[in-house]
Amino acid sequence: MDQRSSPDPAPCWVPVSGHALRHVGVHFDAVRVAGAAGERVTYELLQSTGPQAGPIVRSGVGDRSTYFLLPPQSAAAHRWPAGARLIGRDLPRDTYVGIPALEGRTWPLDWYSRPTREVPFVDAKLLYEAAVAVLTGRVGA
Prior knowledge:
By secondary structure, the chain is an alpha+beta fold.
């Protein structure tokens, strides 16, 4: 699902090489879904958006979480279902998300879908609908 079609310059929060931690709520909010459920939510989201869903980062270690990057201060507009964890500026502590570079060695992080000029973020409403459908068992069970 790695999208390499866009010649767009990388947003300022994407590192030039490797990967870096970025403070959530500054450039984006994030919703985290662990394990295979994150892959199923990604699949459902891609069904409604086509190949450009906006920035979706996956981790290859631990619980293999998937991070959906949303516009700043947009994630709190929804009551996320169990299994989807909001990571936003409104939390009582600072939170960071690992962001891979667009090219080169970025393990243990990589992109399911990259940010583009046309789709710089995941659409919060579409993600919410996909997360509810998958995490409440309406699809992908």
